[in-house]
Amino acid sequence: GAMAAAGLGLVLLLMAGPSPGGGAGCGRDSLREELLLTPLPAGDVAATFQFRTRWDAELQRGTVSHYRLFPKALGRLVSALGVKELHLALTQGFWRTQMWGQPPLQAPAGAELWVWFQPTVTDVDKAWKELSNILSGIFCASLNFIDSTNTVTPTASFKPLGLANGTDHHLLRYAVLPREVVCTENLTPWKKLLPCGSKAGLAVLLKAERLFHSSYHSQAVHIRPICRDASCLAVSWELRQTLTVVFDSFSSGQGKKDWSLFRMFSRTLTDACPLASESKVYVDISPKNKEKELLEVTPAPTSVHEAIVQGEKRTYAVYDLLSPSLFNTSRSLNVQLKWARPQDSSEMPTPILHAQRYVGGYGLQTGQICTLIHNTHPYRAFPVILLETVPWYLRLYVHTLTIITKGKENKPSYIHYQPAQDRRRPHLLEMLIQLPANSITKVTIQFERALLKWTEYPPDPNHGFYVSSSVLSALVPSVIAMKDVDVEQSPLFTSLFPSSDGSSYFVRLYTEPLLVNLPTPDFSMPYNVICLTCTVVAVCYGSFYNLLTRTFHVEEPSRGGLAKRLANIIRKFRGVPPL
Amino acid sequence: MAATVPAGGRVRGAAALLLGCCAAALASGVQDQAEQFFRSGHTNNWAVLVCTSRFWFNYRHVANTLSVYRSVKRLGIPDSHIVLMLADDMACNPRNPKPATVFSHKNMELNVYGDDVEVDYRSYEVTVENFLRVLTGRIPPSTPRSKRLLSDDRSNILIYMTGHGGNGFLKFQDSEEITNVELADAFEQMWQKRRYNELLFIIDTCQGASMYERFYSPNIMALASSQVGEDSLSHQPDLGIGVHLMDRYTFYVLEFLEEIHPASQTNMNDLFQVCPKSLCVSTPGHRTDLFQRDPQNVLITDFFGSVRKVEITTETLSLDSDLAGFESKLPVDELATEPLKYAEQLPVAQIIHQKPKQKDWHPPGGFILGLWALIIMVFFKTYGIKHMKHVF
Question: Which of B:136-155 have CB within 8 Å of A?
């Protein structure tokens, strides 16, 4: 009895000993959730959700069998296919950089998937195909359409965002499906990957009917290896699920730019996810007017946090859902912002780097793709990498590529061009362009439209064909020097990209996707031709056949039916010739 | 003598009564056995729901399919056993005034899209080839599980198709058709591979009855919304959305299914009576000659629901709560010798001086090879073989 009790006590002590943070199991894992609300200059509100699961385990070796916070579907994917980094984004809408400012993390319209594989993977293309098929099953998206005709291997863009020993670009694959639709069936599996699902914490706000009634909706999954601690001798795996949505509070709020959580999401927050170690709501209350007054949010925040984000000093009101004082007065948290003076938000600061792209030309034979890149910094020049992926049926003429800045030709310091192969590979054009201060750079290239085989047209060919967005990667010089942030202590939205030095910050922008019409045949023509040919053959051949083979003989006129005979009798009586 | 007759008669009467009771008991026992014999022997349920129409004005076909999906999920078939194919996206279509919703009743009463929907084949993936591959199981090996029909010989499968059709064919996405012969052959392939126990085929298109005329595999029951030569009509438009929301036949089938719950005993004969000509304008048809059981004995939940047989046990099971041994077996992560670092996002100097990738050398093939062979042949024919010594 006593021995058993002592034994039990020992077992309990052993169990209670290690891992206070994570619980029993191999490796500790932790969850942080965060919501960032940013009022945008044009009156909209951007809400960025980030759910970050960090797991101290070695996924590559395939020895892991117990999954707790890290979803098993993604963990098995990483270990089985030798994935070093995975970024998948599904987006509906377009981030208007000119009106809304620099995005925290932008994604192109449609589906974007880019993956770095481990050096141990021998057949990268096979692993890429398998990966896209598995992801299409997990996220209910048509990612199985990713094949060699829309996959490229960039040589200078898309460097790994996580730990990397060397960057052999043969291990990188990038593909965009611009025609991909994002709807509830993509949101549902995304929500199911969260440890608390959509039942507790910040994810209760994610209701499809409100999220898709917005100007921009982007949901993404990022998996990468990160440093486990400051000494960086061991690797942890980080899964970030981000969701950015921009609500047009002006048009839906009856002309007022005031917003609240309830008005945006038709829900309020009631508690934090019990599995999360940190659960916070940040509201950007940086001053927008000349008096430098902070914006007022109700209820009162638990603290105020200042950070330098994208080269600017910003102030955030912080609501910590795990602090007991937050839910003292009311059971639910409904963050509200009322603009004291409506004209405060009319000032629109221009972002330092933004770009547009459009198709020029006329007719269905030729055209040109023009990209305008704006550098609005008053005195600093910086380089930008432009990555363009053009489908093979728009045949680019590289000798017509011109880059003009301020009226003069601007020669890029690095060009990588990989021409397309019909039905096998798309065009890839990567250039490192130096943007002088306060300038607009115009990049134009002409193309010719190809005629596809009639079975290659989609069921709705008159909609047009999409050209995926160009990617601009740049290190933008920042106004204020930024210091190195400790990833664990600072908010998640400041640690998206690893920072190299304090004088500039990395930004990745996407231009608009293009919609071009290809010369479309009349699909009823095969039917018409068959009908016409068969008719002609039938008439000609049939007539000839009849003329040649028919024999004619005289036929006795028939006596006629009963009615005719009666009529003939009556006519005989009348003396009229018979019928 | 007179006393024995009534006694004998009484005995005989009692014997007759006893015999009668035995006979009755035997008969009911036989009837029970017979009923057991005719009760369905399926152990799992699958559903393949296909909407084949594209474009916004075919909203009603997507709403049809989603209503059947919703009923089937409500009656117990899980998402992993449903293959849902929608040829176009109506919920997040830019023309939809209420994004992320698909309504089946006017005045937006019932949102059949909901919050928990899993569409397996979307948009351009809904083709005749993919549909036939799903049915016959001849799918490329990299297809994920959610896109496969993993049925076995004890599965009851519900196949629902809707779209635009004609006499003997069903149109897929306005660019291709599937004919009734192809469909019948696909079902025969399924029967040969024992991929179903019983199959219920419902089709809601114009001239739908032509699609089941050619079936020849056993255990198939088919329903259609209209006969050959008739059009299936749509039910009602919604002025807010601007298009017709549902087809009549599926609307009344949905109303009928809303009454069904997992334990209901309604049988197929009631389903055949759904939507008479006065409501549907077209004449719904059905075909049961290939089906072995009497439709009277077939429950609706045999196909639309997934009723599991649950056995309750009273013995207890104790789980081992000692995790101390498990923790000691954890592999210790090996540490790197020097600190790892993050990659530089835009290393300008490294990019500019990047060596161009060595192109893999391929031996010349095809045209170039032929051209050189021709040139060499002409040379040697002109100048003769003895000039080869100049070459070597």
Answer: 142-147
Q: What's the rounded Cα separation, in Å, for the pair B244 and A87? A: 40
Torsions phi, psi for B295 (to 5 deg):
-55, -20
Q: Find the CB nearest A183 among B91, B146, B338.
A: B91
Nearest CB neighbour to B144, from listed A134, A213, A231: A134
Q: Which two tokens stand for residue A577?
A: 């010739």
Cα–Cα distances in angstroms (integers) from residue B55 to residues B59, B66, B96, in the given order: 7, 16, 12
DSSP for A197-259 reads: TTTSGGGGG--HHHHTSSSEEEEEEEEEEEESSTT--SEEEEEEEEEEEEE-HHHHTTT---E
Torsion of CA B222, B143, B61, B178, to 10 degrees: -60
The pLDDT value recorded for residue A577 is 84
pTM for this prediction: 0.84
| Residues in contact with A216: Cβ distance below 8 Å, sequence separation at least 6, in sequence order | A46, A91, A92, A93, A94, A95, A244, A245, A246
Predicted-complex ipTM score: 0.85
How far apart are the CA of A110 and the nearest CA of chain B, in angstroms?
13
Minimal Cβ distance to B340: which of A167, A232, A413: A232
How do the domains of chain B map onto residue ranges? Answer: 44-304
CA triple B67-B69-B74, angle to 5 deg = 95
A140 touches chain B (CB under 8 A): yes
**Residue A78 phi/psi, 5° resolution?**
-65, -45
Q: Can you list the alpha helix ranges (DSSP code H) found in B100-242?
A: 128-136, 180-192
Both structure tokens of B252: 């009344």
C-alpha B161/C-alpha B85 separation (Å) is 10
Interface test with A, best of B175, B346, B352, B357 (most A CBs within 10 A): B346
Query: Per CATH, which fold does B44-304 belong to?
Result: Rossmann fold (3.40.50)
Would the CB atoms of A231 and B339 count as touching at under 8 Å? yes
The one-letter amino acid code at A49 reads F
Q: Is the Cβ of A12 closer than 8 Å to some Cβ of chain B?
A: no
In whole angstroms, what is the distance from residue A519 CA to residue B301 CA? 51
The CA distance from A111 to A91, in Å, is: 6
Could you tell me if A51 and A69 are in contact, meaning their C-beta atoms sit under 8 angstroms apart? no
- Could you confirm whether B92 is annotated as catalytic? no
Token digits of residue A142: 């048509």
Distances (CA, A) of A504 to A100, A385, A481, B345: 21, 15, 8, 11
Q: What CA–CA distance (Å, rounded) separates B22 from B261?
A: 38
Give me the catalytic one of B42, B81, B206, B280.
Answer: B206
Question: Are B144 and A235 an interchain contact pair (Cβ–Cβ within 8 Å)?
Answer: no
Distances (CA, A) of B366 to B174, B310, B363: 40, 67, 10
Q: What is the 3-state secondary structure (H, E, C) of A416-453?
A: EEECCECCCECEEEEEEEEECCCEEEEEEEEEEECCCC
Side-chain half-sphere of A431: how many Cα atoms within 13 Å?
A: 21
**Which residues in chain B touch residue A161, judged by CB atoms under 8 angstroms apart?**
342-343, 345
A185–B346: do the CB atoms touch at under 8 Å? no
Contact indicator for A568, A558 with CB cutoff of 8 Å: no
Per-10-residue mean pLDDT of chain A, 579 residues long, equals: 47 41 58 92 88 87 80 91 95 91 89 95 94 95 94 93 87 95 94 91 92 93 90 89 89 73 89 91 83 78 87 88 83 80 64 93 93 93 95 95 94 93 95 94 96 90 94 89 75 79 86 93 90 95 92 80 86 84
Any catalytic annotation for residue B164?
yes
Burial readout B58-85 (b: 16 or more C-beta within 10 A, e: otherwise) = bbbbbbbbbbbbbbbbebbbebebbbbb
Distance CA A226, CA A229 (A): 9
Q: Which residues pair with B189 in a beta bridge?
A: none
Return the structure tokens found at A52: 């970050």
